[in-house]
Design a protein that fits this description.
The protein is built from 21 helices and five strands. The protein is α/β, with parallel strands linked by helices. It is globular and about 75 Å long. The protein starts with a strand and ends with a helix. The chain folds into three domains: 2-142, HUPs (Rossmann fold), CATH 3.40.50; 143-179 and 222-303, Serine Threonine Protein Phosphatase 5, Tetratricopeptide repeat (Alpha Horseshoe), CATH 1.25.40; 315-480, DNA Cyclobutane Dipyrimidine Photolyase, subunit A, domain 3, CATH 1.10.579.10. Bound molecules: flavin-adenine dinucleotide.
């Protein structure tokens, strides 16, 4: 008689620091049963679902490539990987059950995901499995501290980041647990008996294994992710706070795609900082603060579930804004043709690489919502459709922050002036030059004195500015007030 554990991989394509996999393997190793025991891994290919959820092609292709690497890692642990093909989430519970029955599975293991939609899918799976007498083991593995667990002294959620981050740090120090190692390899009996599935070359909707994303910047696989992490913490971390806002510099880690598909965990990133830092106060490092932002947005999704349904954290503010629904302006923004260099450079970077520097994400999002007064949901969807690091909670949080309708959001009167932002963070115009191919750095930023009534017209090949900055700024502030 067989006793098989099934581990379901989603956006957690790794073998290290994977609670569900680690526990399933431990249960097998500790078992005294005479039944033949082992672990099977499973992943669902859901191309239609991914398209419906605005997943970008580059992200899906990156996910597939990492699934391919995971297959090899699992082989080293004697764990076969099976695939189910489910067009949408609705098909997943039955497909998983069919697989479980085929291999006489006795228990299912998986790590929780935060967004409500994924939680609903998992509840359906759990219910179905329980009805069939198959146990389900769910784990917290995506966040460093369990989602929703950082609360104030009254047991209420934090709505502002700074006190949240203080409480988060205290809680982390008290409950500090390092990342888990990979499990020990299992006996090869089950592995040799069950064939590993091949990852298909073509999964429909133009999504292909091995298709293009920037493989030089983001080579697939855990080893690449950890190499990049080590390089960042050993060579760049010290200068992070000075350089992180300058988009022409390599000042940030660009690890977000790995975190997004779960090849790397935030816990591993924090352990990396600790390992390379001589500073006893390492924990107050700015980079750790950025990782806490990721945790903050995940906590908000759990504690304020209506946010999952694209509702703003501050509906009262949103009520005051009359979104303009101007397709021509939105299209110009999408294509990077607004005539504002730093905005257009950011959008071109997004379109060409699937990634955009954080400072420029804030500038482009502020431009769309505060100056073009287009609904933040449009921008958030467009970002998701193009980002290789698309992440529902961080994207939602970032967009609501930029539109001043989120938790601890930018105040309504903070409207990024794209020219001033360029002067401060891309003074030599190197970033704009790189993405707009202007060919003459230094001349790329519009003269701030020319703002307002007299719009600059001599911009060579560049489109004319689509708005009068000063006038739109005035209008927006009146509306928000
Ligand atoms: C409008 C908008 C949309 C965004 N959409 C996404 C998204 O879809 N996916 C995503 O991962 N991040 C998103 N961010 C956050 C941030 O821009 C990216 O995480 C960051 O640019 C990734 O680059 P990095 O890995 O070099 O970051 P680093 O500066 O090296 O930071 C390390 C990690 O910390 C986390 N982090 C950093 N800043 C933030 C932040 N402000 N909010 C949440 N987490 C953060 C990320 O996981 C990041 O990889 C968005 C920000 C804005 C303003």
């Amino acid at each position: 008689m067989k006793n098989i554990k099934l581990v379901w991989f989603r956006n957690d394509l790794r073998t290290r620091d994977h609670r569900a996999l680690y526990t399933a393997c431990e249960h097998v190793a500790q078992s005294t049963s005479s039944a033949e025991m082992g672990v099977i891994a499973v992943a669902a290919i859901s191309s239609k679902q991914w398209m419906l959820q605005d997943e970008s092609k580059s992200r899906v292709q990156f996910w597939l490539a990492n699934l391919h690497s995971l297959k090899d890692e699992l082989a080293g642990l004697n764990i076969p990987l099976k695939l189910i093909h489910a067009e949408t989430n609705q098909e997943i519970p039955q497909q998983l059950l069919r697989l479980a029955k085929q291999y006489n599975v006795k228990a299912l293991y998986f790590n929780d995901e935060v967004p409500e939609y994924e939680q609903q899918r998992d509840q359906q799976v759990e219910q179905l499995f329980q009805q069939q007498g198959i146990g389900c083991h769910r784990f917290e593995s995506d966040l460093v501290l369990p989602a929703g667990s950082v609360l104030n002294q009254q047991g209420l959620p934090y709505k502002v980041f700074t006190p949240f981050s203080k409480a988060w740090r205290q809680q982390f120090i008290q409950s500090e647990q390092g990342p888990l190692p990979a499990p020990q390899p299992l006996s090869s009996k089950v592995y040799t008996a069950i064939e590993t599935d091949n990852i298909p070359e073509d999964i429909g909707y133009g999504l292909r294994l091995g298709a293009d994303w920037n493989k030089q910047i983001w080579p697939a696989g855990t080893e690449s992710a950890h190499r990049k992490l080590q390089q960042f913490v050993s060579e760049q971390l010290t200068d992070y706070s000075q350089l992180r806002d300058f988009p022409a510099q390599t000042g940030t880690s660009s690890l977000s795609p790995y975190l997004s598909v779960g090849v790397l965990t935030a816990r591993q990133c924090i352990a990396g900082v600790q390992a390379y830092s001589d500073d006893p106060e390492w924990f107050y490092n700015q980079w750790v603060t950025e990782l806490i932002w990721r945790e903050f947005y995940r906590h908000l999704l759990i504690l304020f579930p209506e946010m999952n349904r694209w509702k703003p954290f501050k509906p009262d503010i949103e009520k005051k804004i009359a979104w303009q629904h101007d397709k021509a302006k939105f299209d110009a923004w999408c294509k990077g043709e607004t005539g504002f260099d730093i905005v257009d450079a950011g959008m071109k970077q997004l379109l060409e690489t699937g990634w955009m520097h954080n400072r420029v994400r804030m500038i482009t999002a502020s431009f769309l919502t505060k100056l073009l007064r287009q609904d933040w949901r449009l921008g958030a969807r467009f970002f998701m459709q193009h980002l290789i690091d698309g992440d529902f909670s961080s994207n939602l949080g970032g967009w609501q922050w930029s539109a001043s309708v989120g938790a601890d959001a930018a105040p309504y009167f903070r409207i990024f002036n794209p020219m001033r932002q360029a002067d401060r963070f891309d003074a030599k115009g190197l970033y704009s030059q790189q993405w707009l191919d202007l060919g003459h750095p230094g001349d790329t930023n519009m003269d701030t004195d020319l703002l307002g009534d007299a719009l600059p017209s001599d911009l060579g090949q560049r489109p004319q500015p689509i708005i009068d900055y000063a006038a739109e700024r005035r209008r927006s502030i009146e509306e928000y007030q």
